[in-house]
Design brief:
307 residues; alpha/beta; Rossmann fold; N-(1-d-carboxylethyl)-l-norvaline Dehydrogenase, domain 2; 2 domains; five-stranded parallel beta sheet; five-stranded mixed beta sheet; globular
């Protein structure tokens, strides 16, 4: 497949590296120092076992120079999606589709508003990885996993082709029968843990081991479950328990990308995670008071970072 990775951070860069290493035709669309490092030195990934592998890659900052591709992996931050979406137009052919790997559940609708629903999948991934420096990514935790599918949940050949590409790359991959449910299941995990960890300024091992913060996390998750059910998302009955099990399997030192951004004074995905819980709940008359408190507590720092 001809695949474009738009946004070469910890997620897009890692999965693009895996696909390119297995022989797929991958082009990386980046900017600034990251683009220069990719051009000069290739893309390096540090693996969980401490090894480093460098791969020469094709990189550009101009999607017009790339032209139509089969698939686009969207790797920018969630808050950058609306601004970045128009730059994807030159990559679109009749059957091209975009897989958003952003944290949150709103990226598909934001992309569809610009590109058309027929060009957008639902998608999610599980991995702890981040950009150590330009052109260098560290895989810090979790077995890499991706899931995606058509927004109407039809099983299409183009979805199967990308699934086969990830399988060849050795990445665990699924096309769920209903892509919206697992997107919300990840949302239960990432929005709640990110918000609480950012307020507590602590890694997941501390959050889950202190009874008081563990109880807060459970309540945050229960609120998001209620919002999802109010929006007619078909979550499994044990979704909250499964989410806590995911939290308990994370390496103790793990932090979330939103948490790191907030702690380091950078713009973050606060609106796409904690803010989205509050906003999506209010749309259907479902309050989430503890999530609202977390969101409001972090908002001043977010506003300062964006200024």
């Amino acid at each position: 497949m001809r695949i474009a990775v738009f946004g070469v951070g910890g997620v897009g860069g890692y999965f693009g590296w895996r696909l390119a290493r297995s022989g797929e035709d991958v082009v990386f669309i980046a900017r600034g120092e990251n683009l220069q490092a990719l051009r000069n030195n290739g893309l390096t990934v540090e693996t969980l076992d401490g090894e480093s592998f460098t791969l020469p890659v094709r990189a550009t900052d101009d999607s017009r120079a790339v032209g139509p591709v089969d698939a686009v992996l969207m790797g920018v931050k969630a808050w950058q999606v609306p601004e970045a979406a128009p730059a994807l137009r030159p990559l679109m052919g009749p059957e091209t589709f975009v897989v958003p790997f952003q944290n949150g559940v709103e990226a598909p609708s934001q992309l569809a508003a610009v590109l058309g629903t027929e060009h957008v999948f639902g998608g999610l991934c599980y991995i702890v990885s981040y950009l150590v420096e330009p052109g260098r990514i560290r895989h810090a935790g979790l077995e890499p996993y991706v899931a995606f599918g058509e927004l109407d949940n039809q099983l299409t050949r183009r979805a199967q082709m990308l699934q086969e590409a990830f399988t060849r790359a050795g990445v665990r991959v699924e096309i769920p029968p209903d892509i919206h449910a697992p997107m919300w299941e990840k949302f239960l995990f990432i929005a709640t843990l990110s918000g609480l960890a950012a307020v507590a300024r602590a890694p997941v091992g501390i959050i889950r081991s202190i009874p008081e913060t563990r109880a807060i996390l459970k309540e945050l998750i229960d609120e998001v479950v209620a919002v999802a059910r109010a929006r007619r998302i078909d979550l499994k009955e044990d979704a909250a328990a499964v989410t806590m099990a995911v939290v308990d399997r994370l390496p103790a030192e793990s932090t979330t990308s939103m948490q790191r951004d907030i702690m380091e004074g950078r713009p973050s995905e606060l609106e796409s995670q904690c803010g989205a819980v509050v906003r999506l709940g209010r749309e259907v008359g479902q309050d989430a008071p503890l999530n609202s408190f977390i969101y409001g507590s972090l908002l001043p720092q977010e506003m300062r970072a964006r200024q």
